[in-house]
Amino acid sequence: MSGLSRRSLFYGGAAIAASAGLKSSLVWSADAAKAATAPGAKEEIFLGANEYPDGPGEAARRAVAAIIPKGGRYLDSLTVDLVKLFASKLGVAPDHVTAYAGSFMPLNWTSLAFTSPTAGLVAADPTFTVGVRRAQLIGTPLHLSPLRSDYTHDTEALTREAHEKKAGLLYICNPNNPTGTVTSRADIEAVIRNKPKDTVVVVDEAYIDFTDERSVVDLVASGADVVVLRSFSKIHGLAGLRLGFAIARPDLLARLNRFGHSPLPVTAVTAGIASLEDTALVPTRKAATARSRADLVAWLKNKGYTTSPSDASFFLIDVKRPGNDFVTAFKSRGIHVGRVWQPYATAFRVTLGTPAELAVFKQAFTSIEQELKSVPVQSAHVIGDDHSEWGHVC
Ligand SMILES: Cc1ncc(COP(=O)(O)O)c(C=O)c1O
Question: Which of 51, 56, 292, 391 has CB atoms 3.0–4.6 Å from 60's, for a disulfide?
Fold first, then answer.
């Protein structure tokens, strides 16, 4: 293991242990524990992968701890309970919902199921590209449409492209990653109404609970050619436990699931049930995120920086010079921010952390501004646009 990855693991572990209220010595080696408590020991801060900074809620943590002795069983009936519970919350029948270990898999499978060398994929640019990359792998023609100037999806252009290019799949990430911008339900309804007959619309709602926008999940119940994806990695804080869902007509789910399915980790399933039953969790986290977002956006605006109009737990900051200058400078201070996307090369994405983490972020931002004053501005370019499967893809 390289020094860098060992260090990240250690600091990541210390952070996890601290946020779980555990002593790091319980989690890591005695050496690591000693270093963690040494004067001047510094924790890295992770504001780059759109994780929820507080992790699982209290009820989910208790449920995970309680299930561990039963971890030798598949416990399929628990997954059935989870699916029934989530389906009833969404107002759809349980046979319209499949649970997965995260939403990466169903997203990958939508590309494999609905696209081909003769059935293209239409999406915005920039957007979350996991499905796009899978489609590329099987020779699917891609058609990426720039966002509108207000960063929303240009739904008319996407619909037009879908007709012109005989799309098998039209992907809408709502709110969009990396901008955090909401595309209105009316616009998505228009896409579904006006799309070619054979195009399946995939609406990725990984961040929908952070917004006031209505989910389109009810359109699934009404029989539309739409697959809605949900992730419990975000507002539910279960990124490392892994839980996600596809919600669609059973015939569409069958097309996804012919690529295979796997029993879920019992820890994820029980955490998902507990998290759903904790009805205060989502509204509390949504409000806390909105407060942090408003605070950081106002602070940046006061300094003369613009941000993408986000309703989610992250946004782009235009730093008026190559975004990577800031990404690299943050990294050297142990702060991991998001990456840079090609159409907005003078911006980088930041995920909202805890108020304490954001205070450190602000301090570092100011010091980086000073540091970069003496560094000539090169033309903006995107480096580290790392599309490796387990790299920086969120
Ligand atoms: C828009 C979007 N969809 C899906 C995912 C995948 O999430 P997971 O597999 O953790 O559920 C992410 C992760 O960041 C995302 O940003």
Answer: 56
306-319: average pLDDT: 98
CB-CB contact of 113 with 259 (8 Å) = yes
Q: Judge if the beta carbon of residue 324 lies within 6 A of ligand 1.
A: no
44 vs 42: CA distance, rounded Å: 7
Residue 75 CB less than 6 A away from ligand 1 = no
Residue 265, domain extent:
58-277
Average pLDDT of every residue of the chain = 89
HSE-CB of 362 using CA atoms within 13 angstroms = 19
For residue 390, being part of any structural domain is answered with no
Q: Identify the domain boundary among 252, 277, 302.
A: 277
pLDDT for the residue numbered 28: 34
Percentage of residues of the chain with pLDDT beyond 90: 82
Whether 244 maps to a domain, the answer reads: yes
Alpha carbon nearest to ligand 1 atom 13, residue: 394
Encode pLDDT of 75-104 as tens digits.
Answer: 999 999 999 999 999 999 999 999 999 999
